[in-house]
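Dissemination and training. As part of the outreach component of the grant, students in the summer workshop were shown how a complex can be specified as a set of sequence lines and then modelled as a single object. The example used during the hands-on session is reproduced here so that future cohorts can follow it. Participants entered these lines:
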Amino acid sequence: MSRHEPPRLAQALLRRLALDNEGLAGDLVEEFRRRQSDAWLWRQLIAALFTHAMYAPHPPISLNLTHVDDPVVAEWLMWRRLGKNGQKPVNLTGTGVEGIGGLTMVMLGVMMSTVVPAIWWFVFGGVVCGVVLGVVMVKTQRFARLNTEARRHGVFRLG
Amino acid sequence: MARDLLTDFELMILLSILRVGPEAYGVPIAREIEATGRRNVILGAVYTALERLERNGLVASRMGNPSPERGGRAKRFFDVTPQGLKAVKETQRSLVALWKGIAQLKGGTA
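and obtained this result:
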């Protein structure tokens, strides 16, 4: 039985690849239909995705964590507004990322204090590096977005 | 600024485009290299080299029309620019100059 379509997962990856390089994605489909070899397609596809990720020039991407940013920004702006009016918010909901971050910190604390105390310096160094990296990312990227949001809400301006 | 000499893979790609002609796109370029160079070719690597050559002004590309046998995706055709042709000739001249006078290479290519 001859099959003319790539496997479903390969099709999904080809669609993703086609966003950046339509010619290459089309070439892979054309050649797959001639060769009728899943192994050939997978080898080529994985190599194509790898070489594209490694060597293709990528435009700088802003740190736009859309699904995370909006609730965080809204929450933060609410704090600022209420703070200015002398009120305190009564109900704040955290995002999934904040929850995962919190759990990770708890896990690191447990590991450091009970399971493997000898690696405290490793964990501490990781946390410090993470905080420094986070501050740098926030300074360089997030504030631009937050400023835009703040201007839109007419609250204040950062930095 | 473009480098003066090409890598072996870049040279093979440019020569393949010249051999295939105005309808050169990824598949025939890769087939040409496989047939004449007797090596397996990764299409992604061909495109990476082609994009590098294009950035250096040695090839130019244009998009064709989408076709059903390619899953509705268009072909990207490549042409060697005059600058690319000059780079090929320069590389050939350098390689030929290196070849000359080597005793071990006289009397056949095997």
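The mean pLDDT of chain A is 73. Students were then asked to discuss how this feature might be tested experimentally.
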